[in-house]
Design a protein that fits this description.
- Helix content is 35%, strand content 23%.
- It is globular.
- The longest helix is centred in the middle third of the chain and has 23 residues.
- Strands 2-1-3-4-6-5 form a 6-stranded mixed beta sheet.
C-alpha cells in the first residue's frame, strides 16, 4: 500500500477536484445507507478510473447482476471523501491546529484521492475480521481476486479488518 507521500507523488494533492472524473458503472449500484436509491455513476480519481471500470466489468462478467445484488456487491459505500482515516481524526485535527499540514496529510484516507472504494459497509464494518465480515466468505473470493488483479489491495486480506475497503496500490 502506498504511503500518503507516495500518493501525492503519484496522484497529486488530495481533494483536488481537477483530479476527479465521473465514470458510469456497468451495473446499478445501491447507495449503502439508502438502498432504495440507485446510481450508475461514481466519482473517482481520473488515474484510477480505468482500473475501477475493469474491476466492475470483471465483477459483472463473473457474477452477473442478480448475483451481484444478492451478495451485496452493489452496495456502494463511497469513493471520493476528503477525510482523515477512521481513528486518526484527533491527530489530524491537532496537526491542522499546529499548522503542520505535512503531518496532517499523513492521516488522510485514500478516499481523499478518490482511489479507494467501500462496498457493503454494514456487513463489512471497520472492526470486523475474517470470522464475521461478509466479504471474507468463500463466495467473495473471486471479487477480492478481481480487485487484486487490477492493482487494488483490500484491507480485509492485508490487515484482517475493514473488509469493505479496497484501494489502488
Amino acid at each position: 500500500m502506498l504511503t500518503n507521500l507516495k500518493m501525492v507523488e503519484r496522484f497529486g494533492e488530495p481533494g483536488n477536484p481537477d483530479n476527479f472524473t465521473v465514470i458510469t458503472v456497468p451495473y446499478p449500484m445501491r447507495i449503502a445507507w439508502d438502498p432504495a436509491k440507485i446510481t450508475s455513476r461514481m466519482q473517482c480519481h481520473k488515474l484510477a478510473a480505468h482500473a475501477f471500470m475493469d474491476v466492475f466489468n470483471d465483477i459483472l462478467t463473473e457474477y452477473g447482476v442478480p448475483k451481484i445484488r444478492e451478495l451485496g456487491i452493489d452496495l456502494f459505500g463511497g469513493c471520493v471523501n476528503f477525510r482523515p482515516m477512521r481513528g486518526t481524526e484527533k491527530k489530524y485535527e491537532e496537526a491542522l491546529k499546529a499548522k503542520n499540514t505535512k503531518l496532517a496529510a499523513t492521516y488522510l484516507s485514500k478516499h481523499s484521492w478518490g482511489t479507494a472504494i467501500d462496498l457493503d459497509p454494514a456487513r463489512n464494518t471497520l472492526k470486523q475480521n475474517s470470522k464475521t465480515a461478509q466479504f471474507a466468505k468463500p463466495e467473495y473470493t473471486k471479487m477480492n481476486d478481481i480487485f487484486y488483479s487490477h492493482g487494488f489491495v483490500g484491507l480485509g486480506r492485508e490487515e484482517n479488518r475493514d473488509w469493505m475497503h479496497f484501494e489502488l496500490k
